[in-house]
From TrEMBL:
Protein name: Hydrolase CocE/NonD family protein
Organism lineage string: Bacteria, Bacillati, Actinomycetota, Actinomycetes, Mycobacteriales
GO-annotated molecular function: dipeptidyl-peptidase activity
Xaa-Pro dipeptidyl-peptidase C-terminal domain location: 228-496
Keyword Zinc: no
Pfam annotation, one family: Peptidase_S15
InterPro entries: AB_hydrolase_fold, CocE/Ser_esterase, Galactose-bd-like_sf, Xaa-Pro-like_dom, Xaa-Pro_dipept_C
Composition bias type Basic residues, residue spans: 301-310
Alphabetical keyword list: Hydrolase
Entry-linked SUPFAM superfamilies: alpha/beta-Hydrolases, Galactose-binding domain-like
Amino acid sequence: MQAVIDVRGTGASSGDWGMFDDVEQRDTAEVVAWAQAQPWCDGSVGMYGISYCSINSLQAAGNRVPGLGAVFAVEPVSDISRDLMKTGGAQTFFMPLWMLAVALGKWLPSPSDVVRGGIAPGWLAGRLRAPLNRVIRYIFEGLRGRGTLIDNDEYFRQISPRFEDIEIPTFVYGAWDDIFGPAALRIHRRISMPDGRFQVIINEGYHGSPGSQLGRPDGPPRLDVLQRAWFDKWLKGIDNGIDRYGPVTLQQQNGGWHTLETYPRPEAVPQRFYLDAEPSGFAAHTSLDGSLGAAAPRGRTEHRLHRRPGLLKSPTTSRLMSGMTAALGTSGLKDSRYFERGALTFTSAAATEPWVISGPLNLHLRTRANGAEAFWVVSVTDVAPDGFSRMLAEGALLTSRRAVDEAKSVRGVDGDYLSPWHPTGKGQKMPVEPGVSTTLDIDLTEVDAMIKTGHRLRVVISAASLPRYIPSIPELWASRHGQSVVLDPDQPSYLVAPVVIGARAGAA
């Protein structure tokens, strides 16, 4: 038996929509208790959901809701603020657009729901009380860069699932080009359960096409098959082998399907790739065709970065729009070269043998802001011999948000950051002194990518990527004087990436 419940304040439900708040979380616990009490239920209850509903499910698991026996979460977030709402301190166009869609949709309950159960008491009163939910407030606070909603650290802490407290069997599915990035792999780092009770699958795809790569001869079964097997095992006790499936199953970027005991790959060793102004000879379309290599630059150079919006034809926009920009063709969906115009790029030599990047990435970058703020957008791409530049990872950071929370960050054995965690709440900005060089560590999304023979690795640095990242009006005004990347042999800039090279990479 399956029950689909409209969240408070949406669909046919009355009340005010709280967007994951504590009231909504208590509602979830009440729904689980209600389901357990029904005559058609034997007491075993599982939760399944895509996107918003997957977050509801993981919240319930982290809250240890009584009676909840298993969860199957499709395309969730690892941290709502970090993954989407305030990545690197910047807002995103997706949030007000999505919130507006929810606000308008709540006025149109499902006709079938109305026929079956009618309209709940107080339905109209709740909608009249808050006709657009928090949309106007969110937009206003986002434009001015501060407010009780976007700066409410307690709210973001409250709504993010408590992964470390999850004890019930949990299956998480994600996609490399999901809106939230490959959040499933960040979740994997925070959940530890034995005996196959926690499983992760991640494959090529977007937020709008979950499971599109599944069900083929060379890969895992369809999502619905996996979901049924998961609940059969953990709610009905059927020994179907799903607990021996992973625990990490991924479709490698530029590669095939792999089953891993853990992620990142334990054989991956963090390595520095230094940024140098020496031309690579492979990126004439960009503002700077620099190189990426094993040695720091020999001389000091400074390179001004011009703000170019990026707009629709970019892989970051394709991620944000759930792949809907496919109408613009493959060049806008996957190829980063259009976006790279006006950017600073640093490209490695062609690989002489296959190698693998596996894990979180960090760009250690020496910068200079000419004003009181600067915004940095970074991506890492795989460049094919024909020049096609495929984005593997992305990240962004306001210079004022460069503070690092050591307790939440990940460092390699040599001390370099692999995954720096930047606080984005109220009172956590750092001053930016105009004209003074500043070092940043910019967190990038996780990867597991094969760099094939003849392919190259590229770091792309720009000052804007609309509509994915939207700094506030005060931040944009403070950054109007421009910014530069400083390449200094005494304080070098470099990408930190865990790599597997040689025969082990070929077997990865």
